[in-house]
Design a protein that fits this description.
The chain is of the alpha/beta class. The chain folds into two domains: 7-198 and 388-404, NAD(P)-binding Rossmann-like Domain (Rossmann fold, 3-Layer(aba) Sandwich); 202-381, 2-Layer Sandwich (Dihydrodipicolinate Reductase, domain 2). Helices cover 33% and strands 22% of the residues. The protein has helices at residues 18-29, 31-36, 65-76, 97-110, 127-135, 201-210, 224-233, 239-248, 257-260, 263-275, 302-309, 314-326, 386-398, and strands at 7-14, 39-47, 51-55, 90-94, 116-119, 139-142, 156-160, 167-172, 189-190, 215-221, 286-287, 329-338, 341-350, 362-369, 377-382. The strands form three sheets. A seven-stranded mixed sheet has the order 4-3-2-1-5-6-9, with helices on both faces. Strands 11-13-12-10-14-15 form a six-stranded mixed sheet. Strand 14 and strand 15 (377-382) form a beta hairpin. Pathway: Amino-acid biosynthesis; L-methionine biosynthesis via de novo pathway; L-homoserine from L-aspartate: step 3/3; Amino-acid biosynthesis; L-threonine biosynthesis; L-threonine from L-aspartate: step 3/5. The active site is at residue 268. Its EC number is 1.1.1.3.
Length: 408
């Protein structure tokens, strides 16, 4: 006998890039698993940077799986959502009307069946949209780090329940004239995939704090690209050689300086620091770039950097690697979050430590607290990749299912 459906989760997805497409594929492929759990994820809308595809009746139906599969193929090929015209029962809206239609869906569903707004984009532009959705009672799941790391976010206020592992309040204060509150109830927001892709970093930190055990320090290698680069240098390879190999393997951004500059790690560190209650912005984090300003994007093209600029960094990096090795240490690119502040950059670490043993593109995070003072809680695993990140997003969506239970 089929398991009765206990929870229906309507979803609107913002962003059809690599993570967004993998998320849609995961939702489709997991239908049998979720059906056995009595859960149905109904994708009622998908938006890219210019348009929105939305089901004709968001109350009773979603975009069918065949359409979602074709949508993923079309976006992978670089085609617009409009290329799907005639392939199903849906409506297509272009910006700026598309944004108002997302709000319409939030208004319609937020206070009735509920709605999960999923941000897999890579822009700050979704912040006000999410604020409006929250005002209408919607839930939010984020893979996009930028809404949580904006220059004007001043404080992440968290109050923890003594009897549960849930954070009761999570309030982000941004520009007063833009919005005062993004989220008033942590139960309705999930952002695990903003740090460490699918690794349970956010959940682990919040569980420790919720237990009354104050977190004193977090040290983490949060870039699969830089983790790979630094571990390969131990074998005596040249920095330029390793970076080019990482690019050929698809580990880096199209311009490797986007990784080597350390800003992606800094954003993840900022999210963790704010989770611990630190009132800081990205400008308060000391970030060490692995290339000097004279080799920056405003001075050299990506091609010139790879062909002529990168080699100039070999000698200096080789000297630092050898110096660390002479002291029995290795170099790792890490974030360090303590009560005194937050910094991101190269650090010498013992070879036999969890971070020192790191090889390849894994992420490793060490969490120190009163209970984990001498032996930190260590989280390690794949911390990058569209597939892994999308799996983390799907897990976050499923974690909201009890808020969407059908009433008898």
């Amino acid at each position: 006998m089929p398991t009765p459906v206990k929870s229906v989760l309507p979803v609107v997805l913002l962003g059809c890039g690599g993570v967004g497409r993998y998320l849609l594929r995961h939702i489709v492929s997991c239908r049998p698993l979720h059906a056995n759990q009595g859960v149905s994820i109904r994708v009622v809308g998908v938006a890219d940077s210019s348009s929105l595809l939305v089901a004709e009746d968001v109350h009773s139906s979603g975009l069918d799986d065949a359409l979602l599969t074709n949508l993923c193929a079309a976006k992978s090929a670089g085609s617009p959502l409009s290329s799907l015209l005639g392939q199903g029962k849906y409506q297509l809206f272009q910006n700026p009307e598309a944004r108002s239609k997302v709000i319409d869906a939030a208004t319609t569903l937020g206070r009735t069946t509920g709605l999960v707004l999923v941000d897999c984009s890579a822009t700050y532009d979704t912040v006000s949209l999410m604020k409006d959705a929250v005002d209408h009672g919607c839930c939010i799941v984020l893979a996009n780090k930028k809404p949580l790391t904006g220059a004007y976010v001043m404080l992440l206020i968290s109050s923890f329940s003594k009897s549960t592992y849930l954070i009761n309040k999570c309030i982000f204060l941004l520009l007063q004239e833009d919005f005062q509150k993004l989220v008033s109830n942590f139960r309705r927001i999930r952002f695990e995939s903003t740090v460490g892709a699918g690794l349970p970093v956010i959940a682990s930190v919040t569980r420790i704090i919720a237990s009354g055990d104050p977190v004193s320090r977090i040290v983490g290698s949060l870039s699969g690209t830089l983790g790979y680069v630094m571990s390969e240098l131990e074998d005596g390879k040249r920095f330029s050689e390793v970076v080019k190999t990482a690019k050929s393997l698809g580990y880096t951004e199209p311009d490797p300086r986007d990784d080597l500059g350390g800003m992606d790690v800094a954003r993840k560190a900022l999210i963790l620091a704010r989770l611990l209650g630190q009132q800081i912005s990205i400008d308060n984090i000391n970030v060490e770039s692995l290339y000097p300003s004279e080799l920056g994007p405003d001075k050299l093209s990506s091609k010139d950097f790879l062909e002529s600029g990168l080699g100039h960094l070999d000698k200096g990096m080789e000297e630092r690697v050898k110096a660390a090795s002479s002291r029995g240490n290795v170099l790792r690119y890490v974030c360090e979050i303590e009560s005194t502040g937050c910094q991101v950059g190269l650090k010498e670490l013992p070879k036999d430590s969890a971070l020192g043993r790191l090889r390849g593109s894994d992420n490793v995070v060490e969490i120190y607290s009163r209970c984990y003072e001498s032996s930190p809680l260590v989280i390690q695993g794949a911390g990058a990749g569209n597939d892994t990140t999308a799996a983390g997003v799907l897990a976050d969506i499923m974690d909201l299912q009890d808020l969407f239970q059908k009433t008898a």
